[in-house]
Specification:
3-stranded antiparallel β-sheet, single chain, 4 helices, globular, Crinkler (CRN)
Length: 108
């Protein structure tokens, strides 16, 4: 079993963005997309999430995913067709991309 870290996830998100994310991967802010023990859904994100104060920031880059609430057991969900069609499938990580003028990396 491969143990993945948050750092790997940040890099993968940036790499898979097809250039849509211009900020360096070091500037991406990741949050556990869970409020009151419930995962946010695709619908929640479609409606917009403007306040992340209730979400736990995932800020330990080298942390294995299983130590930050993202183990296979934590994220296990068997969707039904109805879940998919109604966009009620869970989202596990919320990525916040800083505006271009707020990047802190020297590689920006």
């Amino acid at each position: 079993m491969v143990k993945l870290s948050l750092e790997w996830r940040e890099k993968a998100i940036k790499d898979q963005s097809d250039g849509k994310i211009g900020a360096p991967w070091l500037d991406l802010r990741l949050f556990l997309a869970k409020k009151d023990e419930a995962w946010l859904t695709e619908n929640d994100l479609k409606e917009g999430v403007s306040d992340t104060s209730d979400l736990e920031q995932l800020d330990v880059a080298g942390a294995p995913l299983n130590l930050v609430g993202l183990s296979e057991k934590d994220v296990k969900f068997v969707p039904t067709l109805e879940d998919v069609e109604s966009m009620n499938t869970p989202v596990h990580v919320l990525v916040v991309v800083p505006p271009p003028d707020e990047t802190t990396s020297p590689y920006a």
